[in-house]
Amino acid sequence: MSTAALGRRLVTCLLNVSEARRADLVESVAKAALYDSQGVARETTAVLNIFNDRDYNRSVITIVAAVEGIGEAVLSACEKACQLFDMRAHSGVHPCLGAVDLVPIYPLGEDVGPDDCARESRAIAAGLTRRVPGTSVFLFGWADAPLQRGLAQRRKEMGWFRKTADSNGVGPVPDKRFGLTGNGIGASPYVMNCNVTIDTQDLSVGRRIAAALRESAPGGLPGVQVLALPHEGAVEIACNVESVPGLPPGVPPGQRGAAAPPGWPSFSIAGQPYCHVPTSLIAARVAELADEHGVATGGAVLAGFTPGECRALAEAALSRGMAEFWKERQSVRM
Questions:
Q1: Fewer CB within 10 Å: C terminus or N terminus of the chain?
Q2: How far is it, in rounded angstroms, from Cα 45 to Cα 66?
Q3: What does pTM read for this prediction?
């Protein structure tokens, strides 16, 4: 398959696992996505990035593949994580319920639509509960037919924010070793993760900033879901930045080809335009809110890539045969 044809079939999974303090084990999970049990490399599959946070004790592994190959790659990584990580011994400040805590599938290529991602997500969910007895999952987004409930809603329903599961999803009562997997083993338009540090240890200040920032607040930022968490002696404003349907602000209706405002990532899925609030705007708004409390801010950190960056890096990695791209991407000229 040519690079151009492959690019049109690309998807990504930002696999969230509940371990960051043993980087070698997290890397073993990443490699399980790339190689089968005999050590043979999977075609058209790469890992672009591994983001570790020791305070959260959580890692995000960016797996990219053609949509036809994403299922086995992600499922193998999930199996390896369940073998290596025990939730009974887990500690960390970030909410979580499972050793494999989140498995979202996002389309990157023009020829991949919601139905494709939902199908792969449901197959991963079924495969995980079959291959690893004692695992249990819940579905969200396009995979959660017919309701298509969002991740934040499903997490509330499942008790994720309290780290106590209230009910079962797909599969048996969860084995305490594995916890409950948030399976997006769901699918949705791309979600970025952006974190901004505020220079205080007062979590109540962070929570007030988070409440004002999130989408549901008057004047909140569209598509932004927020937690305030203690982090490295300060407070981190941790944002999930969801895609929102429509054109970026300032682009007139009917002019999809018009240039987006600076910094606004935009893309389309099955002809539907989507955009993201840019990291720069989130950082500026956090700084404004923090200043109202007499608190300074640090820089904003993007845990991964924008959708456009993810696709470009995926094409670069796969065209060069760089499956373990996270080790080599500093040497790649785009």
A1: C
A2: 7
A3: 0.91
